[in-house]
């Protein structure tokens, strides 16, 4: 049974082996953000410009639902193509079209980046003729989210993953992120639930542009965006002129989770607690490591009450038996608190760790068991397996 689920040109790397792209992909199901800026129109005719109709599709199963609406798997009535449709319900029908503009903003951002083997493809916008509600049509991925995959691996006692597997997955994710950042799009919600595994297990794809933003406009940007455990320190400190480096921090958290199957910074319950969790592991910033930090309310008001140290314990958590020296250099570079010193996606891909990248093989002939879905702690929406 196919399991369909939903929670959520650098010349230096051009010659690296690229695993074949997945034949199917799927969208994710997190709400649209409160604010973002439309990207400039692409040169080719935009799929956002002309709406299709939901009547062109036959829904086959529910993938996930929440306050935003629902994600369904559907089949095109004429072509038979399997797709995922993210149906977005306007919470305020009298809101003057604000919700409609948010939907179209998400569609534009997704379309800008979606033509890439490691980013879920964007196929267009459809409108329900009966309700006028809009939906985003995406490719449908046959595999689970990375979060589901890791929970299943943990259940079966198959962690940590081999370093070669982590390297192949991170190469794909950083390659996808590099493409997004070249297009001036920041995802702002990179996490295992927003990364999907292809049906053949050979590719991972970034999905869900509901919290994405364009950097074609100048700051200030909304710092209240993302999922707490994966938010970069500058977001938690409410820095409003951040950039694409918030995504590479999140991918560092994903890399750590790929290695040991556990959330790296999972004790935080609010922004302050999350910062303490991060700094306890990586060391508290000081003027020579992050000059801007000392001017923040956290440094002035909270730091004096804490037991402060400046030493990183990250290597102790990921010893050489689990992660090689070069692999740790990438992890440490992504998980650098000062964004000015953090690795960009392009810089990370140039690291010698990626000089050789094996083909990614995550699923093999195995299915993800429904037992993997019993832990609802990290799931944003209900998920339903469908044939």
From TrEMBL:
It is an enzyme of class 2 (transferase). SMART domains: S_TKc. Its EC number is 2.7.11.23. Keywords: ATP-binding, Kinase, Nucleotide-binding, Phosphoprotein, Serine/threonine-protein kinase, Transferase. InterPro entries: CDK, Kinase-like_dom_sf, Prot_kinase_dom, Protein_kinase_ATP_BS, Ser/Thr_kinase_AS. It catalyses: [DNA-directed RNA polymerase] + ATP = phospho-[DNA-directed RNA polymerase] + ADP + H(+). It holds the Pfam family Pkinase. Residues 8-36 are annotated as: Disordered. Residues 57-354 form the Protein kinase domain. ATP binds at residue 86. It comes from the Eukaryota. Residues 8-17 have a biased composition (Basic and acidic residues). Belongs to the protein kinase superfamily. CMGC Ser/Thr protein kinase family. CDC2/CDKX subfamily. PANTHER family: CELL DIVISION PROTEIN KINASE (PTHR24056), PROTEIN KINASE DOMAIN-CONTAINING PROTEIN (PTHR24056:SF562). This is [RNA-polymerase]-subunit kinase.
């Amino acid at each position: 049974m196919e399991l369909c689920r939903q929670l959520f040109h650098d010349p230096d790397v051009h010659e690296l082996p690229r695993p074949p792209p997945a034949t199917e992909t799927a969208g994710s199901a997190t709400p649209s953000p409160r604010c973002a800026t439309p990207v400039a129109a692409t040169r080719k005719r935009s799929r956002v410009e002309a709406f299709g109709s939901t009547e062109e599709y036959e829904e086959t199963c529910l993938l996930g639902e929440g306050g935003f609406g629902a994600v369904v798997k559907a089949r095109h009535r004429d072509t038979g193509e399997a797709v995922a449709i993210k149906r977005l319900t306007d919470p305020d029908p009298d809101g003057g079209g604000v919700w409609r503009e948010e939907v179209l903003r998400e569609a534009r951002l997704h379309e800008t980046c979606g033509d890439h083997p490691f980013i879920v493809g964007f196929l267009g916008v459809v409108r329900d003729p009966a309700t006028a509600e809009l939906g985003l049509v995406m490719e449908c991925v046959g595999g689970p989210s990375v979060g589901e995959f890791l929970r299943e691996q943990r259940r079966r006692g198959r962690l940590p993953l081999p370093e070669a597997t982590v390297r192949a997955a991170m190469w794909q994710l950083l390659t996808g992120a590099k493409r997004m950042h070249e297009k001036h799009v920041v995802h702002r919600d990179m996490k295992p639930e927003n990364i999907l595994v292809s049906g053949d297990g050979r590719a991972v794809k970034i999905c869900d542009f509901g919290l994405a933003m364009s950097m074609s406009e100048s700051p200030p940007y909304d710092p209240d965006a993302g999922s707490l455990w994966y938010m970069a320190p500058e977001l938690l400190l409410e820095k409003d002129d951040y950039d694409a480096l918030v995504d590479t921090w999140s991918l560092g958290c994903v890399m750590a989770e790929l290695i040991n199957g556990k959330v790296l910074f999972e004790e935080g319950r609010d922004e302050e607690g999350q910062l303490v969790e991060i700094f306890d592991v990586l060391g508290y910033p000081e003027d020579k490591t992050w000059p801007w930090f000392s001017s923040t309310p956290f440094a002035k008001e909270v730091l004096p009450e804490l037991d402060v140290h400046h030493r990183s314990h990250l290597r102790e958590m990921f010893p050489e038996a689990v992660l090689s020296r070069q692999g740790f250099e990438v992890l440490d570079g992504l998980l650098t608190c000062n964004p000015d010193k953090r690795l960009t996606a392009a810089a990370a891909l140039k690291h010698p760790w990626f000089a050789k990248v094996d083909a990614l093989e995550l699923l093999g002939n195995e299915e993800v068991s429904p037992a993997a879905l019993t832990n609802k702690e990290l799931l944003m929406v209900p998920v339903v397996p469908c044939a």
